[in-house]
Amino acid sequence: VQLVESGGGSVQAEGSLRLSCVTNGITYRGPCMGWFRQVPGKERERVATMDGDGRIDYMSNSVKGRFTITKDKDKNSLYLQMDNLKPSDTAMYYCAVRLNTGCPVLPVDFPYWGQGTQVTV
Predict the structure, then answer these.
(1) Residue 73: is its pLDDT beyond 90?
(2) Strands 9-10, 117-120: parallel, antiparallel or unpaired by DSSP?
(3) If I label 43, which of 69, 108, 111, 115 is the partner at 20 to 30 A Cα–Cα?
């Protein structure tokens, strides 16, 4: 299983970015997919996850109303539309997959990860 994120970059506060996660090698129909972020020296933080049925499983309070997670179920691709970005959103953003319909809470329970894409606000 391979995951490749893209769409990160530098943007001014209140700006927008759209992250994409393209996958390859997923044969499980309807995996849990999610976005996490990490700042150096801090733990990886769960941002948003979507279960295998396409329902939003989790959305961090810090991004509610500003970020939107969507999924192309046919392609097993994941997206994160980020609007009204704040300096506190600066982080490396990672896409993660677990081959189950339900989503776990902890990053350690996601076996597949992308290389990350940097977002700087």
Answers:
(1) no
(2) parallel
(3) 69
pLDDT tens for 84-119 read 999 999 999 999 999 988 999 999 999 999 999 999
Query: Is residue 60 scored above 90 in pLDDT?
Result: yes
Question: Rounded to whole angstroms, what are the CA distances from 59 to 2, 36, 117?
Answer: 24, 11, 19
Count CA within 13 A, CB hemisphere, residue 7. Answer: 17
DSSP letter at 25?
Answer: S
User: Cα separation of 26 and 2, whole Å?
Assistant: 8
Question: Nearest to residue 70, comparing CAs of 78, 58, 62, 60?
Answer: 78
- Cα dihedral value 58, 117, 78, 59, nearest 10: 10
